[in-house]
Amino acid sequence: MFSETWTLPSPSIGIPRAVLGGWHLATVITIQSGTALTITDTNANNIFGISEDRTQLSGNCTKNQLVTGGPTASKLNNYFNAPCFTAPPVIGADGIGTAFGNSGTGIVDGPGQANLDLAVSKTIALAWPHEKSSVQLRAEFFNALNHPQFANPDTNFSSSTFGVISSTSVNPRVAQLALRFSF
Q1: Residues 84-98: pLDDT tens digits?
Q2: What radius of gyration, in Å, describes the C-alpha atoms of the chain?
């Protein structure tokens, strides 16, 4: 995360100062990688009595192939490469009971985030009701570039929505205006 506030330069006297002076610009830039995700599997046949466990890797994929390639927007319905995962191995004498899956915790990263928040303000000095009075007009834009920031996909291999991203983690662009009178 990076934030900065600038007071823009202005002329020193007269009408140019009234028009071009008192401007401020503030930004907050957020760039981050996605959260580490653990792929789980709901498994009622686990012989150890744990119904939610890590999934089994199929052995057909490298770590780089676990997530479908391309930009996040192109893989909203298949974030994970499903053939890379499988059900845990059967180890019970009854032919039904299974062991734990062999995938690690946090083996893949969710979608990253790149966001810009921006504020522009203009302060106008007033002589009323006393010499240090002012009016400030302020416009703030959250997610100023209106880029979608996607939430994490469903990580349960047993779910019908496995690998589906169904929401965003940041609102679309939101703008607000403010007027402040200081005296």
Answers
A1: 999 888 888 888 889
A2: 27
